[in-house]
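Risk register update: the risk of archive-format incompatibility is retired. Evidence:
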Amino acid sequence: MYRDDVRIMRGAPNAHGKWQGPSFTGPLYIELETAEEVDVLWEKVKDRAKVSYPVQDFDYGAHEFGICNDSGYSLAFGAPSNKA
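Archived output:
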């Protein structure tokens, strides 16, 4: 879903969460512009949120991390990785 400069992408369940049946199972993925922005956000939230997975580079080219909000929804924040 797009609006102006904001894009919201739904994802499929992954190995970071336990499957508990049909529901909204994937993370809400918030795409940032740069890997550096992901790192800055990570430093702001890592000690204030329930971490699903820490910031890291993935084989599919993303630099991202995941947290859970107070309602238990998984939120992923990522950008293209700087690593080739």
